[in-house]
Amino acid sequence: MISFHLPPTESWFGQFKKRCAWRAEWETIDQARKEIADYIDTYHHRPHSGIGYRTPTELAATWRPNPETQMNLATLTDNDHGVHVNQSH
Q1: 45 is a domain residue
Q2: Are residues 77 and 68 in contact, defined by beta-carbon separation less than 8 angstroms?
Q3: Is the dihedral of CA 62, 68, 72, 78 positive or negative?
Q4: How many folded domains does the chain comprise?
């Protein structure tokens, strides 16, 4: 039997319902879409404990590209992907 129990997703929807859906009385579907999109945008751009209470944007600003560690995808072979591709066509 396959289980589709996804605790992080269920937790997110539980918080969404408490903080947004159950508190709102939308008059139009467009109003609901806008408020839900605003909630999601705010949720995704809030400070996270897992990244030192910084926002994802603040964390991304600290990343600097390192040419020595960047992978050049053009140099990968099929074996690097664990995939065999028949190129006899």
Answers
A1: yes
A2: no
A3: negative
A4: 1
User: What does the alpha-carbon distance between residue 19 and residue 35 come to, in Å, rounded to a whole number?
Assistant: 11
In this structure, is residue 49 part of a structural domain? yes
Nearest-angstrom CA–CA distance, 22 and 30: 17
State both tokens at 18. 């408490």
Asked, for residue 55, whether it belongs to a domain, the answer is yes
Domain carrying residue 32: 26-66
At residue 14, what is the residue type? Answer: G
Read off the pLDDT of residues 33-89 as tens digits, 9 standing for 90 and up: 999 999 999 888 889 888 899 998 898 888 877 666 555 545 555 554 444 444 454
Q: Which residue has the tokens 């909630």?
A: 39
| Model pLDDT for residues 53-62, shown as the tens digit of each residue | 999 889 888 8
Instruction: Give a yes or no: residue 57 inside a domain.
Output: yes
> What whole-number distance in Å separates Cα of residue 70 and Cα of residue 46?
29
